[in-house]
Amino acid sequence: MPVRPAIARDTDFLWRVLLEAYNWNGEQRFTVEQLVIDPYAARYLVGWPRKGDFGVVNETDAGEPVGAAWARCLPEDEPGYGFVTPDVPELTLGVLPGQRGRGHGRALMEALIQAAGERPIDRLSLSVEDGNPAVHLYTSLGFTWVGRNGGSDTMLLDVRTRTP
Questions:
Q1: How far apart are CA 124 and CA 108, in angstroms?
Q2: Could you check whether the bond before residue 49 is cis, i.e. omega within 30 degrees of 0?
Q3: Considering only the top CATH level, what class is 3-158?
Q4: Contact at 8 Å (CB) between 156 and 123?
């Protein structure tokens, strides 16, 4: 399960992953076209990569991307669903449906957390909807609940004090 840094040419794949993150429960609740024009969804990727953005892509041994995770700081006047403060990057994670349950999500999260630790970043945040089984992955990695936004929990990880 090779994991590599996400780069500008991955943008189309990141949109596909964002769609999977939004449609995590298997229902086709959104399309990529809807996400692109939705101001809340689009802020996670428009202009990728901009200064401070970082991410990782997981590939098969044949080089086919199967999942990605990335983080971006968002301003207070344009917060994401897991917004904590402007200096805490909010992460997005998604794995293609046929590849779930194979450890890709954990590999992506561990690589993203490691990448955060190599930057002047102390914390990472995320949002997880009620019923999303990924919450078990997040808690196992040390994320804790810090808030609520609609039908989702906001979780936070202290990158500096996390025990690998």
A1: 14
A2: yes
A3: alpha beta
A4: yes
Neighbours of 110 (CB within 10 A): 15
List the chain domain ranges: 3-158
- pLDDT per residue of the chain (164 residues) written in tens, 0 to 9: 689 999 999 999 999 999 998 888 777 888 888 888 898 899 999 999 999 999 999 998 888 999 999 999 999 999 998 999 999 999 999 998 877 778 899 999 999 999 999 999 999 999 999 998 899 999 999 999 999 988 899 999 999 887 55
Closest among 101, 99, 118 to 57, alpha carbons compared: 99
* Distance between CA atoms of residues 142 and 33, nearest Å: 34
Rg (C-alpha) for the chain, rounded Å, is 14
